[in-house]
From TrEMBL:
One of its GO terms (biological process) is glycolytic process. One of its GO terms (molecular function) is phosphoglycerate kinase activity. This is Phosphoglycerate kinase. The lineage of its organism: Archaea, Methanobacteriati, Methanobacteriota, Stenosarchaea group, Halobacteria. Substrate binds at residues 26-28, 41, 64-67, 121, 161. Its EC number is 2.7.2.3. (2R)-3-phosphoglycerate binds at residues 41, 121, 161. Monomer. Its main location: cytoplasm. InterPro entries: Phosphoglycerate_kinase, Phosphoglycerate_kinase_CS, Phosphoglycerate_kinase_N, Phosphoglycerate_kinase_sf. It is found in: Cytoplasm. HAMAP family: Phosphoglyc_kinase. Gene3D superfamilies: Phosphoglycerate kinase, N-terminal domain.
Amino acid sequence: MSTPSTPTFRTIDDLPADSRVLVRLDLNSPVEDGEPQDNRRFERHARTVRELADAGHRVVLMAHQGRPGRDDFTSLSGHASILADHVGRDVDFVADTYGEEALAAIEALEAGGVLLLENTRMCDEELPEEPPADKAATEFVRTLAPRFDAYVNDAYSAAHRKHASLVGFPLALPAYAGRVMETEYEANTAIARKEFDGPVTMVVGGTKATDVIGVMDALGDRVDRFLLGGVAGELFLRAAGHPVGHDLEGTDLFDDQWEANHGTVESVLEARGEAIHLASDLAYEGDDGERAEVAVAEIDEKTDAYLDVGSGTVDDYEPLIRESDAVFVKGALGVFEDERFADGTVGVLEAIAETDCFSVVGGGDTSRAIGMYGLDEDDFSHVSIAGGAYIRALTGEPLPAIELLRRADDAGA
Ligand SMILES: Nc1ncnc2c1ncn2[C@@H]1O[C@H](COP(=O)(O)OP(=O)(O)O)[C@@H](O)[C@H]1O
Ligand SMILES: O=C(OP(=O)(O)O)[C@H](O)COP(=O)(O)O
């Protein structure tokens, strides 16, 4: 797997004393009943925040949650208290991104203080993806940047997005890498450089289906086989002619967007058909509220929402995992947060944990299944809090926010 050139980041060790720092974290989390759920992202980012506060800097945090229109698009007020528990310090929260209230709270912050701003995606200029110079010219960046001495990017897992908080600020302020950025970059770059003697397998699931299709294409022959499940798997089953695929709240993959996407899915299926393994059975909620399963070959009408791969599929996938030299996981095979639909995800993770193959589990949501179902993180070679960013790193695709950290460093900005 080819890799981008190794950046020599400036890190938080290089920050001038008593800096006012604007820090981008990735606290994007699963949301249940409107509340963010604790996960590895909080624990890992807490280290960066604690070090900055302990050093006496004034620490202002930016992060996003969900996507506009989806159920998980919420305020960050709940995130502040979870983060505070992990940091072991107060984390103040202000329900504003760069308006009067936010500016007053930033101004009032004392040395060693920590303040979390509101969800960056509530600011119109954060999205959509645009060139860094355009993002640097937004009111959002031009208003906040002069209030700080430095920008720290710790959000490796969002570094594939060209959003204002990720690519605008490094053009406006001296930019530094946080601890998560450093460690994830090093681990994922080393993984991308690894050569494997035996079969390389990638388990692909989750909900960010259009994201992973492009990556599957870009990985080319570096991955010998893909084991599919989740919403991504349903897209491929649909392309193979099976009437499956119900859209989640705020998504439109199987209706209007199907017109735009089906050509790509079909061409990936055609080009890599032999490498792509699709579910042979699926699970859904039966009339009695229990898990029920159906063979894919027997589905002749689109009636149910499928929430997991079936037990026959897990039986098909297990031996393929056991004979692999390396296994990469991106996305869950089912809605594992509900125990009834955890069998696919947990079955595959257990099979990986039992072998001594090289293994990486990625994704803010997916990596959460390890702790939830009593698996041991040490049974995997690397558990990344990044999903989309880590699989792009495997293809050698540069991550725009990281390229800017490096350029800022080269320029001595
Ligand atoms: N068939 C399915 N229907 C709905 N959601 C699913 C399905 N399969 C998996 N998921 C959901 O996918 C989520 C993980 O995928 P995603 O958000 O794409 O990945 P990550 O954040 O781990 O990179 C899980 O929270 C799981 O509930
Ligand atoms: O959770 C994230 O990505 P991931 O689900 O691929 O790990 C990042 O926060 C990016 O979020 P986005 O895919 O809504 O831009």
